[in-house]
Structures are given as C-alpha cells and as structure tokens.
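Lab notebook: predicted structure, single chain.

Context: the supervisor wants predicted structures on file for every construct in the current expression panel, including those that have not yet been purified. This is the next one on the list. No modifications to the sequence; it matches the entry in the shared construct table.
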Amino acid sequence: MQQIPVYVFTGFLDSGKTKFIQETLEDPRFNDGERTLLLVFEEGEEEYDFSTYPKQCVYMEALDQTTVTTRQMADLAKKYKAQRVVAELNGMQQVGDLYMRFPEEWVVAQEVMFADATTFIAYNANMRNLVMDKLVGAQMVVFNRLEKGSDTMPFHKLARAANRKIDILYDYTDGSTAYDDVIDPLPFDINAPVIELKDEDFALWYRDVTEEPEKYDGKTVKFKAQVAMLRRDKDKMFAPGRFVMTCCVEDIQFCGVPCRYENAKSLESRSWVMVTAKIAAEKHKLYKGDIGPVLTAIEVIKGAEPADPDVATF
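Prediction complete. Output recorded below exactly as produced.
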C-alpha cells in the first residue's frame, strides 16, 4: 500500500494558516509538480490564489470537518491521483477526531500550529482544551503578529507545558522572525544516584521517561504513586503512577509505569506507595512492541500519600 504524506496546519480562525499555505504552495521547492490535494476545513477571509503556483497540480476541496468520512477523503485522493495532502483544519474542532477518520494509507508527515499572539492567551483561558489539543501533536507552533520586544515567555511556557519537544517560532509585525532557543531544565537531577521526584514533578518525569526511556536506562528513581494492578503478570508486577491532567478534566488519565515486584499481590489497588526502583528501557506489552520504561522495585513502602493527592499536572 502506497503511503500518502499529509501536511497538517492547525490554529484558530485568522491565525495565518491560509497565508502560510499559500506561500508554501508558491515555493517551487515544495511545489515541484507533485499532485497535491488541498483540503480546506475552515474558510477564512483570505482565499487561495492558484494562478501564482509554479506548478498547476493543486486540487482544492472544501469539506466539513465534523461530517467528512474516510470514504470521502479516500475518493478525493483517488479522483485527483494525489501524491500528498495539505490540510487546513478547523480550529474549533479536535485534531484527533479527524485523524481517526483519515484513510489507512494517509500518514501525517508534519503538523504545524499557527497562533495569533494578540488573542492566544485569551483563547487558552477560555478554550484551553482546544488550544492544548493542537499544541500536543504539533512539531512547530508559529506565534505571529507579535510586536518587537514583546515578552514571549508566556507563549513559551504554554507551548512547552503541552509539548516539551515543540519548536517555537515568533513572527514579528516588522517582518522579522526568531526561533525560541530557551532550554527548559528538568526540575530534578537525572544524574543523581537516586532521582528523587517531588510530588509536583511526577507528570514532567513521566512524560520525559516515556519519550526518552534510553536516557534513564540503568538509573534509579524514587517517587510517590498510586497502585494500579496489571491484568497480566499481576502476581509479580504492578504499575505505580498517578492520574495526570494535561489541560482539562476531560483529558485526565492514569499514567503508570510497569514495575516488577515480588510482593505485588500484597498491594491494594489505588493505595499510595513510595517506590524506589531501577529503570530499564525495554519492550513491554503496555508499549505495544515499542521500547519504554520498565521498573524493578528495590523498595515499596505502603501508606505514602502525598500532601496533595489530586491529579498531577504539568
């Protein structure tokens, strides 16, 4: 099955998506004759000008993101013999909902979010779930309409809270641009003999260790967690973790790490423990064939409830 790369552009209305896509399709380095299906799920004030494209091989279709089906998208790709897809998404819809309906052969090659810096903070305050939905999966976020000299740290913090690896570009009103080069240090020492996590650092550690398990291979960690029992290996294994909230109540989920422990059967589900364990980067059923962190308990102390037992956040 031939894969079709999909270039996805997200953001709210008037955030600069259409302008960027227009400029991209005008660039002969991108538009070199590949048959391109342009899917527009949100129509703003700006319109596409096909007369400026160096190659006349772009075919646009306007669709409703809430109702479009897998069959419709597959049929359009077949109709135009598309070699790739460029998609401008509706900012008021969840990105993941559409991805679930992409044809099987469609593979997201890149996702870029655009944000109007003059309204982004207000959007985040009032529609945080939609903002986080777009930041979480994006490789890059572009904050445009920034005045030169503006404080960019609020934008940096919001973007990196959602996605630690996201690239950030600031687009200023004077025409200049600048990449965010701020390095976010972790709030714990991964080179310490024992990595001791504060209660408020669990979410950050969990994201880091699951994204880069090899970095922690052979290290020892100590943290407070709730007990989750595994359906398999339940006699000698459990998954210490916490409920983590990325942006809102709707996205709370339990984030646990499989842990070998001879006395796992003696633990009570949802009880609190203090775990000291060795980390290994290896395959486990929970990671569906991928490499991930697997713990081997050195010590498990019962009744170690944190001062704030509510959900962990970033």
